[in-house]
Amino acid sequence: MPKIDKKKRNWRDKYRFSVTNDTTFEEIWRIRLTKYNGFLLITFLVFFIIGSTVSLIAFTNLREFIPGYPDVNMRRNILLNAIRLDSVEKELSIRDRYFENLNLIISGQKPVNNYLPGDTSGKYKTIAFNRSPEDSALRAQVETADRYNLTLGPISVESVTSLAGLHFYPPVRGIVSGKFDPASKHFGTDIVTKPNSTVEAALDGTVILTGWTMETGFVIEVQHSNNIVSVYKHNSALLRETGDLVRTGEAIAVVGDSGELYTSGPHLHFEIWYKGTPLDPEKHIIF
């Protein structure tokens, strides 16, 4: 018992740490602690340092200095490469089916249907969509606010007379496989032509957009005079960059089959926009 009481007293004994002037022996700073208080103080400081370090690494850009941790550009490139890899796998699958059907036709057999089945992993028929009170209130607010908005409504009939003096150059020569149909949100014309044919500018202008999307593949847009914009989609390669000046009939892209929507072979999706309104290209160009 005496040894246990002595240990308890040692934990409760107070110790003083002081800073003293060596010349005048004046006590400048002091602190009085027990062993128990010192242990708690050291434990708090250790956990505070660990927590601060973890917070700095987790919520600041300091984590990018950790060896092996990807930075913003690397993560963006990883995501883009994953998307492109998925598209390449689909294109390779379509190409393999094409060659298989070609071999079957040569051998006198019936080709296999190229229909791509949808995703059957999910049970979409069992999904129930419930309209919440907040959703109904928001719909009513939007409908009330836009009731007298003159900018809404069906697409206005195009004015051909204002474009009568313009002569559009056909971007490609081929067969029209898809008509202009604003009702189905198909705002252009699909022209089937030879693979790797060049896509040529319909008018003089400036390239205002070049890029790639999962739906329409490689896309290039050209701004012309008189508030006219021409759009060229599903290209296999782009020959011009944003800001380049192009002349009528100048090659700007290569016909392809890029993109995952509305494409089943090499063709060009061509659109003409006049003052924000889509025009029927077949009324202005003979393909």
Provide structural commentary.
This protein has 287 residues and is an alpha+beta fold. Among the domains are: 2-62, no CATH class; 163-283, Glucose Permease (Domain IIA), CATH 2.70.70.10. It is 29% helix and 25% strand. It is built from 4 helices and 12 strands; from the N terminus they run H-E-E-H-H-H-E-E-E-E-E-E-E-E-E-E. It has helices spanning 2-12, 35-59, 72-106, 133-145; strands spanning 14-20, 27-34, 175-178, 189-192, 198-200, 205-213, 217-224, 228-238, 245-246, 251-255, 267-274, 277-279. Strands 3, 4, 5, 6, 7, 8, 9, 10, 11 and 12 form a 10-stranded antiparallel beta sheet that branches. Strand 11 (267-274) and strand 12 (277-279) form a beta hairpin. 15% of the residues are buried.
Task: Give the secondary structure arrangement, pairings included.
Layout: H1 2-12, E1 14-20, E2 27-34, H2 35-59, H3 72-106, H4 133-145, E3 175-178, E4 189-192, E5 198-200, E6 205-213, E7 217-224, E8 228-238, E9 245-246, E10 251-255, E11 267-274, E12 277-279
Shape: elongated
> Uncertain segments of ≥5 residues (pLDDT<50)?
150-161
The CATH architecture of the domain at 163-283 would be Distorted Sandwich
Helix percent band: 25-40%
Structural class estimated from helices and strands: alpha+beta
How large is the radius of gyration?
Answer: 35 Å
Topology order in helix (H) and strand (E) letters = HEEHHHEEEEEEEEEE
Main sheet properties: 10 strands, antiparallel
Q: Strand percentage, roughly?
A: 25-35%
Mean pLDDT metric: 80
Count of separate DSSP helical elements:
4
Q: Termini separation (Å)?
A: 107 Å
CATH C-level class of the domain at 163-283 = Mainly Beta
Please count the beta strands (DSSP E, at least 2 residues each). Answer: 12
CATH structural fold name of the domain at 163-283? Glucose Permease (Domain IIA)
Name the CATH homologous superfamily of the domain at 163-283. Answer: Glucose Permease (Domain IIA)
